[in-house]
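does this look right to u?? flavin-adenine dinucleotide version
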Amino acid sequence: MTDWGALSHDLASIRTVVDRAQVKLRSRDFYWYSPILKKRLRDVTADLVVMPANEAELIETLKACHARRVPVTPRGAGTGNYGQAMPLKGGVLLDLSLMSAVRRIEPGRVRADAGAKLIDIDTEAQAQSRQEQRMHPSTLRTATIGGFVCGGSGGVGSVTWGGLRDRGNVLGLRVVTMESSPRVLELRGDDVQKIVHAYGTTGIVAEVEMALAPAYGWIDVILGFDDFGEAVRFAHALAAQDALLKKLVTPIAAPIPQLYFRPLKNIVPPDTHIVLAMIAPLAMEAFEALLRSWRAGVLHRGDRDTGRSLPPVYELSWNHTTLQALKVDRGITYHQVLYPAPDHVAKVMHLHGAQGDDVMDHLEFVRFDGQVACFGLPLIRFSDERRLLEIEAQFAASGCPTFSPHAYTLEEGGMKRVDPVQLAFKREADPQGLLNPGKMIAWERPDHDGARQAGHLFPAAAGR
Ligand SMILES: Cc1cc2nc3c(=O)[nH]c(=O)nc-3n(C[C@H](O)[C@H](O)[C@H](O)COP(=O)(O)OP(=O)(O)OC[C@H]3O[C@@H](n4cnc5c(N)ncnc54)[C@H](O)[C@@H]3O)c2cc1C
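got this back:
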């Protein structure tokens, strides 16, 4: 039995939260996007929240927790979608939001504390050097850089720069291990993969060094199409224009905008499919030239329709599409699927409309392993778990791997299989298995056969 009074005494000089309601509140993330996880994780809570303000306090916290065999679950802003930051086995919820300094901005790179908000990093980088992060989740305004690197995959900007796992996006990580005397390691090059998207199971990130890109002051554009196939083919053509500077290319099928996008009320006509885009001002003429050969209408341009008060278009994209729908209908959920290149457009159109009225298409164009491809984050009118599995099987049968947002383990969600590099590093950095327990199946069940499953979601990052 853990003596919580004694642990609090050990950590007396560090900010903690003990109030039960507050602790429970901070033990949540956006797991409720999934009706399956909503039921399964409802009662999950930590015993204590600890908020280190600097690396020395972080080390002190890990040392004290290690000595008492207390599980530790890190948290940035708690915007993850699959219960990643939820402490399945109780213990300490390690809130890193006070470690928030933006330390250094140089040409092409930024170094920040793990708890720094993405929006603060962009604001600072723009003010100091007219740069910004190459990519960010649509939760730019709320999420932290440590949470993005450890729980996210990519997002706005991935159409140009690929995902977090692509070499050259995450440049370096300062990581604290979970040992009797925690070590501080600087991981660089391929070693960053020991931590990226590992849900904090393999070490606690204290600092992140990320690549930056020029900040162009993007122009939001919303296009309307009568035909979804035309919208998708246009989106591919735009994504494939390497020299045309863009940060977002998002096709969304009717009736999603009409039913669920309150901010676009009176902007999107009935039965119209849309493509959201962010285009650099200097690329606008090239964009207009491209557009001329497509049957599309311009429904909104951020540089012209300045009287409208719309959110930035990225807050209608990625997982904000689902959030907009959930604001209107709590019966909505979603799935995540990759339409692999080179026949991603054909795959989308093969499945479009064929899965039933309860599946509504939302795509995000990206660079994936160096090629233009697209992810699907279809909205789904939830009926039951059996139907979700049926939809998953339809995708699989069409050669489109899903990565379930209805599971909280690394293997069942994004990675599709045990990551041997992360497993080996966990043995070194967290030999007692105290970091975010329950999230890495391979650790809990060494006989798990995930390693034999076909395909790694990120083959290049996995060393192939
Ligand atoms: C509306 C909405 C839109 C979203 N859009 C996107 C998107 O476009 N792309 C995308 O990738 N994700 C997206 N997400 C998921 C999520 O917002 C992002 O991944 C975000 O970057 C997570 O940051 P966070 O600070 O909230 O992390 P948290 O949710 O707090 O943590 C995420 C994971 O990282 C671990 N962690 C946090 N900090 C550390 C640390 N310092 N060291 C070690 N482990 C740590 C946590 O334990 C957890 O496993 C979206 C979520 C929502 C709700």
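The chain has a mean pLDDT of 94. idk if thats expected tbh
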